[in-house]
Amino acid sequence: MVERALPIVEFGVTEVERARELTLKEKEEAKKAAIAAGVGVRPSTTRAIEEAAAQFAAAPVDYIYEQPALELFRDLLPKYVAIQIFHALLESVAAEHAARMTAMESATNNATDMIDSLTLAMNRARQAKITKEIIEIVSGAAAQ
């Protein structure tokens, strides 16, 4: 997986492409399909609630910093890059542990299967030996 660390994009800007708005006809078809499937449909009166909630959203504000913003950026940038690299290393170690765990689980399953098959083979051999001894005893008794 490739993840871009630098240059840092502006915070709060999403790089995900927004989904297109449904047409009125598509909305009606989706509503009919939801009703036919028995899914509850939210009333369309939530627009006022959403507009009231939008008033509390974060607005672009220029904050006052204790140190100049450029000095903060110079101090934080190396730490940010180091943390991103450390995060990648942690992900790598976690993936290695997951692969080892999967391999050990597979080995355990294979060993269990081998034990079962060897136990079955030994039981058959023991049973054949017992049967052979019984036949020898019976044939010896019949010969007398």
How is this fold's topology laid out?
Elements: H1 24-37, H2 47-54, H3 69-143
What does the model show?
With 144 residues, the chain is an all-alpha fold. The protein has helices at residues 24-37, 47-54, 69-143. The protein is elongated, with a radius of gyration of 36 Å.
Mean pLDDT: 80
Strand content: under 5%
What is the SS-derived class? mainly alpha
Number of strands: 0
Estimated radius of gyration: 36 Å
Coarse morphology: elongated
H-E order: HHH
Brief summary:
With 144 residues, the chain is mostly helical. The protein contains three helices and no strands.
Provide key terms for this protein.
single chain, 144 residues, mainly alpha, 3 helices, 67% helix, elongated
